Prior knowledge:
Layout (H helix, E strand, L loop, with lengths): L1 H5 L3 H10 L3 H14 L6 H15 L11 H14 L4 H13 L6 H7 L17 H7 L15 E4 L2 E4 L4
Antiparallel strand pairs: 1-2
Helix pairs in contact: 2-3, 5-6
Amino acid sequence: xxxxxxxxxxxxxxxxxxxxxxxxxxxxxxxxxxxxxxxxxxxxxxxxxxxxxxxxxxxxxxxxxxxxxxxxxxxxxxxxxxxxxxxxxxxxxxxxxxxxxxxxxxxxxxxxxxxxxxxxxxxxxxxxxxxxxxxxxxxxxxxxxxxxxxxxxxxxxxxxxxxxx
Length: 165
């Protein structure tokens, strides 16, 4: 850990993260490098993280521990029930509907009483090419030898393909 914090460049820190054995620390390290120097991680990994973040945030689900479009719309509904003529709330709703196209589905989602549930296939594996799945799938991890360029990190049910050469 000390080496990670004293290394001056992010590429060096990413190399240290690759050496970590604990999946949780590797995932945290990758996220830290990604947040501070996204250009340092591979294109494949950057796309996977971007997709995962979009899937987590741009949803109508309201049962997530973070803010989603659904939570935003739900909170606006609650505030507008108390003060339906509040111009600021109306502007925020208008902005949300213009900025996040999925927000336009909120009324139908609410009317249908769609249960808030996480999809079963809510892993990065459902978003990558089949050849990458074979290299990173937990079920095939023992069968497929991992080359140094294809290391898999599993934490919180997410598989990130490092994909660095």
